[in-house]
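Long-time lurker. I teach an intro course on protein structure, and each term I like to show students one example going from raw sequence to a predicted 3D structure in token notation. This year I'd like something fresh instead of my usual example. Would anyone be willing to generate the tokens for the chain below so I can use it in lecture? Attribution to the forum is fine with me.
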Amino acid sequence: MANSRQRIIDATLTTLKDKGFARTSTRAIGATGGFKPGLIFYYFPTLDDLLIAALEHASEERLARYGDEIAAASTLAELFGLLERIYADDRDSGFVRVVSEMVAGSVADPQLGPRMMVLIEPWTAAAESAAERVLTQSGLAGVVSPRQVAFAAVTFYLGANLLTQLVPDSREVEEILQTAKRLAPLLDAIGGALR
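-- Reply from a regular --
Happy to contribute to a lecture. Here you go:
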């Protein structure tokens, strides 16, 4: 049974990536996964429940993959480098599209919005913990709130995802992340002077 549930989740993520939110129906998911659409309702009460479960699964998997590196980052340069790598991995795997489609779908379906925010919170919490550690070490802790830095990072990531869907060939997001990584030692030095 767990295998069938996972197969449905995998088919949902693929359908979101390939067809977008508006065309991700139970019929489309069933066609992608090679099963009858009715099987979905054995495991998930509604399509929204399935969409959230699929995104939650992918998000938890990614957080587990990067969690140790987020917890170990000790400089702004390391954090910016990690954000750059996460974004590149998500872009290359198609997860950027999945997140973008779910954000767009949440605008159209107001019941999804709060559920999306619940899925975003573990990433914000991980970013806040890393920001607090790095800002304290760099001497910038009194200048900016770790929660604000975390919220800004998550906001940037979501905005970058959406922009990437509008302008797929743009390298500007990658260039912004590379510039931030290059400026990080300067910010660390400024923080050190403030201590």
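Some talking points for your students: The first helix runs from residue 2 to 19. The mean pLDDT is 89.
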